[in-house]
């Protein structure tokens, strides 16, 4: 598999260098003009969204007029003189793979904004004046991640000498970001932080931006490929998969107990029978763990993940918590308390919404339970990260007697809807 992926990458790179899109990719730059691009400086996309249409158009026109003073096209290359607003794709992207080449000059500083957020770093790795902020480590890192955060610094220095073309391969699924610079892995599956609001996940979609900052930079062979949900799930599932043990074999209820008769196995997936429910639990108690599961919701579907359940009773109250699994986009849930939305610790802590895939598609979710902290990552974006021991306000004033449980069972809390689960796997933590 590793050899196949390496050959695929080399093939994609060689095709890109020849000036035509690799199979499955589309060109972002036509080699002739700025069609498909607009201009936007380092400006919060949230503030841009808040503007009225007239004010927004005025600003975009102003920025584009500025960009035309600093961006040119020469011999099929995008050229920037180190100044002006950033070129920004008209199209937005969610899960994607990006290929591009760049060539820059000494003392220059640039980068690539993903989903309108800074940034995959590009700079002069010989600039001693910036060694204190990491220039000597090389390009490709997610430089605007917090100090010490995974991905902030590149794993290796992979920059080529000035005068040579460098090429990036960047893959982003949700906020999970991997970067290859000149065929070397420099960032592996790191969460890209939301620079504009670190308390919330990276935006679900957004444009790609080419930063200008302090010196000439040239770009060519810019190609993008949208990643569909099945491939996205496979990518997320593959990372460190060897550390996880399957909980469900895809064919039997071996290793499960409880409401076995209320579930069925269809095409390798567990499915709650319509108008049935109850607790379907893995048959051994757990303390601290990470669980991965793919799930598919029918319109308006409702289920839940039981965390440290005692094996009976309401998992939202008698267990440590129930993590809601819900199509909260359905109109019938318009008046829900935020602590009932998908991914929420039911009745206690609200998850960030807006990261579910369209109803009928498979979602990937990873849940980490470590002491009293629970983290929920949905489709590559962290939508909940909370210490439940700090919760003081409960929905409806109803407290949770099982909140302080230190061990219990994991499983599914059916609520009459045919919600499906597959690729359920577990990693126990110390």
Write the layout of secondary structure elements.
Layout: H1 2-17, E1 26-27, E2 37-40, H2 45-50, H3 53-67, E3 71-74, E4 77-80, E5 86-89, E6 96-104, E7 109-114, E8 117-123, E9 166-173, E10 176-181, E11 184-191, E12 209-211, E13 217-226, H4 229-238, E14 245-246, E15 256-258, E16 263-266, E17 269-272, E18 277-282, E19 289-296, E20 302-309, H5 315-318, E21 321-326, E22 363-370, E23 373-378, E24 381-387, E25 409-415, E26 420-428
Antiparallel strand pairs: 1-13, 2-5, 3-4, 4-13, 5-12, 6-9, 6-13, 7-8, 7-12, 9-10, 10-11, 14-26, 15-18, 16-17, 17-26, 18-25, 19-22, 19-26, 20-21, 20-25, 22-23, 23-24
Structure description:
- The chain has 430 residues and is mainly β.
- It has 2 domains: 2-227, Exo-inulinase, domain 1 (Jelly Rolls), CATH 2.60.120.560; 238-428, Jelly Rolls (Sandwich), CATH 2.60.120.560.
- 12% of the residues lie in helices and 36% in strands.
- The chain contains 5 helices and 26 strands.
- The strands form 4 sheets. Strands 1, 3, 4, 6, 9, 10, 11 and 13 form an 8-stranded antiparallel beta sheet that branches. Strands 14, 16, 17, 19, 22, 23, 24 and 26 form an 8-stranded antiparallel beta sheet that branches. It has a 5-stranded antiparallel beta sheet with strand order 2-5-12-7-8.
- Strand 22 and strand 23 form a beta hairpin.
- Residues 1-18 have low confidence and may be disordered.
């Amino acid at each position: 598999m590793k050899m196949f992926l390496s050959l695929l990458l080399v093939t994609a790179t060689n095709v890109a260098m020849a000036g035509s899109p690799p199979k499955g990719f589309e060109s972002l730059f036509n080699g002739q003009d700025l069609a498909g691009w607009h201009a936007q400086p380092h400006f919060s996309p949230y503030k841009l969204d808040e503007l009225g249409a007239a004010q927004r158009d005025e600003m975009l026109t102003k920025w584009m007029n500025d960009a035309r003073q600093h961006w040119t096209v020469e011999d099929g290359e995008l050229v920037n003189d180190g100044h002006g607003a950033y070129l920004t794709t008209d199209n937005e992207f969610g899960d994607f793979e990006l290929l591009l080449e760049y060539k820059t000059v000494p003392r220059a500083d640039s980068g690539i904004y993903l989903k309108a957020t800074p940034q995959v770093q590009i700079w002069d790795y010989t600039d001693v004046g910036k060694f204190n902020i990491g220039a000597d480590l090389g390009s490709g890192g997610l430089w605007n991640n917090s100090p010490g955060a995974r991905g902030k610094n590149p794993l290796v220095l992979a920059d080529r000498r000035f005068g040579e073309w460098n090429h990036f391969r960047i893959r982003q699924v949700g906020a999970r970001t991997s970067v290859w610079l000149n065929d070397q892995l420099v960032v592996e599956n790191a969460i890209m932080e939301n620079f504009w609001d670190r308390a919330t996940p990276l935006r679900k979609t957004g444009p790609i931006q080419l930063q200008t900052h302090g010196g000439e930079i040239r770009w060519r062979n810019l190609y993008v490929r949208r990643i569909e949900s099945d491939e996205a799930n496979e990518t997320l599932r593959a990372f460190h998969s060897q550390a996880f043990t399957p909980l469900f074999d895809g064919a039997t209820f071996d290793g499960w107990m409880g409401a076995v008769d209320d579930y069925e196995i269809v095409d390798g997936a567990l499915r709650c029978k319509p108008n049935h429910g109850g607790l379907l639990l893995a048959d051994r108690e757990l303390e601290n763990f990470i669980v991965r599961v793919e799930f598919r919701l029918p319109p308006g579907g409702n289920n839940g993940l039981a965390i440290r359940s005692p094996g009976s009773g309401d998992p939202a109250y008698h267990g440590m918590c129930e993590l809601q699994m819900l199509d909260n986009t359905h109109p019938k849930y318009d008046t829900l308390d935020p602590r009932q939305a998908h991914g929420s610790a039911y009745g206690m802590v609200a998850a960030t919404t807006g990261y579910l895939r369209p109803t009928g598609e498979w979602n990937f979710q990873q849940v980490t339970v470590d002491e009293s902290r629970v983290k929920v990552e949905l489709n590559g974006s962290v939508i909940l990260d909370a210490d439940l021991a700090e919760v003081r306000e409960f929905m409806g004033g109803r407290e949770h007697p099982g909140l302080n449980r230190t061990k219990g069972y994991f499983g599914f809390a059916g609520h009459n809807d045919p919600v499906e689960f597959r690729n359920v796997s577990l990693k126990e933590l110390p």
